[in-house]
Amino acid sequence: MRAVVCRSYGPPEDLVVDDDVADPTPGPGQLVVRVHAAAVNFPDVLLIAGKYQIKIPVPFTPGSELAGEVLDVGEGVSFVPGQRVSGTTFVGAFAEQALIHATAVTEIPEGADYASAAAFGVTYRTAYHALRSVAGVAPGDWVVVLGAAGGVGLAAVDLAVAMKARVLAAASSPEKLELCRQRGAEATIDYDREDLKSRIRELTGDAAKVVLDPVGGSYAEPALRGLARGGTFVTLGYAAGAIPSIPLNLVLLKGITVRGMEIRTFAEDRPEDSERDMRELTQLFADGVVRPYIGARFPLAEAAAALRFVADRKAIGKVVIDVTG
Ligand SMILES: NC(=O)c1ccc[n+]([C@@H]2O[C@H](COP(=O)([O-])OP(=O)(O)OC[C@H]3O[C@@H](n4cnc5c(N)ncnc54)[C@H](OP(=O)(O)O)[C@@H]3O)[C@@H](O)[C@H]2O)c1
């Protein structure tokens, strides 16, 4: 089969497309999916560079979310060949066939296409755990989302709107902010041109309850300073490259709660909350209440360009790789 292969850690341009990779065989509890669409996540860029929290030994095929049809199943798997499924895996999605644990797979609801199903996995889960189980967002709460037109960011906008929260979207360009407004954000801040802290306070009437931050860098501290007393700051990632250091006195003075959330450890540490969130999220997707915004699509042969697009801050919403017809 054809697969994208990372042979040595480096930039996307070092990836190769190999037409002669062995087809996978499912073991017990596993299945093989004929991949129709895979979606790009920022961590894919970090993984191929060898800069993620966990290092995958080379060679490996990157890609962590996919949708397609079941090709073959291992012992004890109840899915059947031909069934339309989507799933998340750590690596392996940027290929014509992917091996995946049955527990990480769900059936695609009627009316949803492969690209939407692939793009729904990681970012919506990240955003929903953060909003629902970590920040405990309630209807009417002001939620500030940084990097709001990115994968995790736009998922957070969509879900916070679905939860009837009031969304303040912060991003770096008018085009990105316009999309956030179209998706239901009530207010927006161009954080490369406006003062993030004072605009958060002005626009929310000093009532920002939650900040969701998948960006870090120089944006985290002013966003935290914009929170109202007793607010919650959720750190989700560092797409800007730098891990911010926050003066603790800011936390003390306003009684702020700072929390982190990472989907792998969340599922391990809080399995019941994780399962409940997944059930609710699956229902929201099946009912068509939320659908990921796909801003760009690339063929499998151009997977490197897709990863470069994300690494260069060009992506709006999700970037999808069309693998087979
Ligand atoms: N906690 C978890 O479990 C979890 C799960 C998935 C992802 N993540 C993390 O969340 C972060 C976002 O992931 P994603 O898939 O949503 O990425 P994405 O689609 O590329 O979005 C990241 C956003 O960060 C902003 N940004 C600011 N400076 C940037 C820079 N120098 N390079 C790239 N982007 C920059 C961009 O928005 P503006 O241009 O508007 O600033 C961009 O839209 C990543 O750090 C990822 O590792 C965490």
- Characterize the main sheet: 7 strands, mixed
Low-confidence stretches: none
CATH class descriptor of the largest domain? Alpha Beta
What is the β-strand count? Answer: 15
CATH homologous superfamily descriptor of the largest domain: NAD(P)-binding Rossmann-like Domain
Bound molecules: NADP nicotinamide-adenine-dinucleotide phosphate
Separation of termini? 15 Å
> In DSSP terms, counting alpha (H) and pi (I) runs of 4 or more, how many helices?
10
Overall spatial form = globular
Structural class: alpha/beta
CATH architecture of the largest domain: 3-Layer(aba) Sandwich
Indicate the proportion of strand residues: 15-25%
Q: H/E series, N to C? A: EEEHEEEEHEHEHEHEHEHEHHEHE
Mean pLDDT figure: 96
* CATH third-tier fold name of the largest domain: Rossmann fold
